Amino acid sequence: MATVQKVNFEPVTDILPVQRRDFPLADPTLAQPLNSLALVDGEWMTLTSTYKLARAADIATLGTAGAGGRASLKSFPLWAERGRYDVQAIAGTKMPVLFRGDYEFDTRIFDATAVAGSGLAITTVMQWLKVATIALGGRNYVGLVGHGGSADTDPVIGYVSRLPSANGGKLRFLSGGRL
Amino acid sequence: MSVPARVLNELFTQKLASAEGKEKMAEYGGSYIRDRLREVAFSRKVLPPEQVTRADCQRSVNHDTLVKIIDIEPKSRALAITFRGQPTARFIRGSRAEVAFYTISSEIFQKTEQELLAYEMPITKIIEENSVKDIQEIEDREFTIHVEASVQALQQEANGGVVTALNKTTVQAGSVVEFSIRKGELARNAATNDGTVRPIQRPDLVNLFKMLDGNRLRSERLLMTEVDWDDILQWTLEDQGDRVQSETTVDGYKYNTLLGRSYIRTIKTDILRPGNVYIFTKPEFFGKFYVLNNTKFYIDKIANMITFQAWEDIAMAVLNIAAVRKLELYSGDATSLDADGVLSGVIPVAEDALGAVNNRVDQGLKFPQISQF
After folding, report:
1. Are the C-beta atoms of B316 and B291 separated by less than 8 Å?
2. Which of A3, A34, A96, B54 sits at a 20 to 30 Å CA gap from B20?
3. CATH code: domain of residue B299
4. Whether the complex's predicted ipTM surpasses the cut of 0.90
5. Is residue B33 part of a domain?
6. A91 vs B145: CB contact, 8 Å cut-off?
7. Are B258 and B232 in contact (CB under 8 A)?
8. Chain B hits for A91, Cβ within 8 Å
9. pTM for this one?
10. What is the domain range of residue B35?
11. Ranges of each domain in chain A
């Protein structure tokens, strides 16, 4: 199981071609680092009808426990560490996500053993990945879990490029997939 | 000698073909931008910005962003004592607060070299000016939101920690304390709770000043929209006396102060919405505005695509929320309760709604309507 640290989401490929966009948070209190559900880098977000960011899955429901705990829409990874000053300073509390473009990142916000819905544990390189609520270190995050392949109807957000066992405990993945 | 705009556009394109030219254009853009920005943003008139360097800022051990930590004046008092008595002790402690830095950027403007030739106006220069205005508008929007949050927080505290609707009904019923926000005379006596902006009256301003002056602070600077200012021109002989009345009738109000306070007027009515008037103390009692990096201008040309962007790194904070008070000239509720459904009309518009165009040329609305063939 991954351990959440100060930095949990790091680029492996050039970040310049990736469109990074700031959106206001639907719930600005999640930018407060002392909030028990504070957002961390590498969590997955989606857009609300008011063009704001919200977690891509219900944070209170584990992906292994119910459909609400799995992302059903396109989601975007958050690229801002917990408690950043610039995030807190902007009125409306904006946070940056990787919005468009292809990238490869290392993430600590994943659960390789979780089987969410029709998913599978993360075991092989190039396995599809999806987004679900996971428990790490005593609290929930919205992170990556294994996708179940053609039998799984949840959106695919990327592919495993390096397994955690061969990457210092971090999951390396490539963006891309299907809705 | 004036240079035709078309020639300027062509020179611009040619300059971008060399590294030296790019640098020169960026320098030119950079210096131009800084000058305009100082003059225009109303937030900079209320809180004059101070230039800081990296050495003035503090880092975090958790991430790579910066704050500047500001000391807040410590409490102290004196007391009368007898010859044999001694004063109470105070273990000195001063509060501190963080002011965090962030970036305000223009959009990334792009145009192909060939399409640039289709313009007879100096579009590159206009874009530079627009990027300044865009940055300035966001500064003012951030400032207005912080100021509004400050008066609402103080108002909530004065009402027992509960957000309490402030409209003509609650004012007339005496069920709300007007501590940091006050309704104007015409608004508090209106027939309905609505978002209609009533003309500002002289007692409105005096009562607004009293909210600050009665709290060991001094009201110094008024901020209002040009629309509300225009209502001051309607003040009568009884308000102004015959000399100012006759002057105002001919030249408008020309003095630098109004009722002894300096004032700032803004035409940005999509940020500071009409009907909202703020009074501030001097900046040293109120807050901080820091500039870490003045406006930088990036310009590049890859193949035939020209790209520009401008940005600055600033920090802005209201540190003493008691140093600002607000006058509302509409009768409806502007708290987060939005009891009367007027809130969206009295707070700054969304960031992506700023800069709406006034003309309707793209919709074909111009008169007479000419079709070329």
Report:
1. no
2. B54
3. 3.90.1690
4. no
5. yes
6. yes
7. yes
8. 141-142, 145-146, 149
9. 0.87
10. 5-72+95-339
11. 18-178
